[in-house]
Amino acid sequence: GQNIDQPTEMTATEGAIVQINCTYQTSGFNGLFWYQQHAGEAPTFLSYNVLDGLEEKGRFSSFLSRSKGYSYLLLKELQMKDSASYLCAVRDLSGAGSYQLTFGKGTKLSVIP
Amino acid sequence: GAVVSQHPSWVICKSGTSVKIECRSLDFQATTMFWYRQFPKQSLMLMATSNEGSKATYEQGVEKDKFLINHASLTLSTLTVTSAHPEDSSFYICSARDRSGTDTQYFGPGTRLTVL
User: Fold this and answer.
1) Of B43, B104, B112, which has the smallest distance from its Cβ to A33's Cβ?
2) Scanning every residue of chain A, which has its alpha carbon at the shortest distance from the alpha carbon of B60?
3) C-alpha dist (Å) from residue B113 to B16, B88, B108
4) CA proximity to A97, closest of B46, B28, B40, B17
5) Would you state the pLDDT for residue A95?
6) What pLDDT is attached to residue B101?
7) Which of A43, A75, B16, B67 has its CA 20 to 30 A from that of A33?
8) Best to test chain A binding among B105, B106, B113 (most A CBs inside 10 Å)
9) Which residues of B are less than 8 Å from A105 in CB distance?
10) Residue segments in chain B with a per-residue pLDDT below the cut of 70
């Protein structure tokens, strides 16, 4: 099975930087995804990491360490519209559920003025 | 980027009726689509994996006779909630697998089902 852990809630100030951590345990790791989900809406894809290191995409960056089972999503220059839940999801190719994504419970980020 | 549509976006129905939800990949072909359910303030729960041209694979605890899935083409999967009851009220979200590039799942906008 898989175990994905991320903080339940975080609060940060507009214009600041926030880092959302995700740890996971899986046997057939084949990629880690970050999604953003605004209240009442479906998730939207943010980033994908399969190799160790940092992937940068505008204000958002995602980091992966496979040996540590660890990833983080970094949001810079926070804006009020960044208030949302951020979901960490792991793809595991082992077992019967090949290619399925397993989602963490999400981190609800509140951006305050 | 990859676009997935879902219809209807919301539906209200009486207990005992059936509701069909459509999921379409608009600019790519998806041999695999996924159906999720999300209750308020809870995480996404995978219900089933829909494979084009074959039977869907259901997760443990999901009744296949109640949640009928059909994936008849490379761009369309449907979920039918049969004999819906109030406890089936939830946010149903589909996703489609785009094998090009990073081989990513893209989500539809979701369907909010309310059963009276």
Assistant:
1) B104
2) A97
3) 13, 8, 15
4) B46
5) 55
6) 77
7) B67
8) B105
9) 42-43
10) 1
Whether the CB of B32 is below 8 Å from some CB of chain A: the reply is yes
Residues of A in contact with B105 (CB under 8 A): 33, 45, 101
Expressed in angstroms, the distance from the first to the final Cα of chain B is 37
In this complex, do B107 and A101 lie within 8 Å of one another by their Cβ atoms? no
For residue A59, count other CB atoms closer than 10 A to its CB: 13
Instruction: Report the pLDDT value the prediction gives residue A90, as an integer from 0 to 100.
Output: 93
Question: Do the chains contact at B105 and A33, CB–CB below 8 Å?
Answer: yes
Backbone angles phi, psi at A88, to 5 degrees: -95, 130
pLDDT for the residue numbered A94: 65
- DSSP letters, A23-90, are EEE-SSEEEEEEEEE-TTS--EEEEEE-SSEEEEETTEEEEEETTTTEEEEEE-S--GGG-EEEEEEE
The confidence band for A98, taking pLDDT boundaries of 50, 70 and 90, is: low
Nearest in space to A81 (alpha carbons), one of A47, A39, A45? A39
Among B31, B38, B44, B98, the residue to mutate for chain A (most A Cβ within 10 A): B44
Per residue in A24-81, pLDDT tens? 998 888 899 999 999 889 999 999 999 999 999 999 999 999 999 999 999 999 999 9
- Give, as one character, the DSSP assignment of residue B86: G
Beta strand extents in chain B (DSSP E only) = 4-7, 10-13, 19-25, 32-38, 45-51, 57-58, 67-73, 76-81, 90-98, 104-107, 111-115
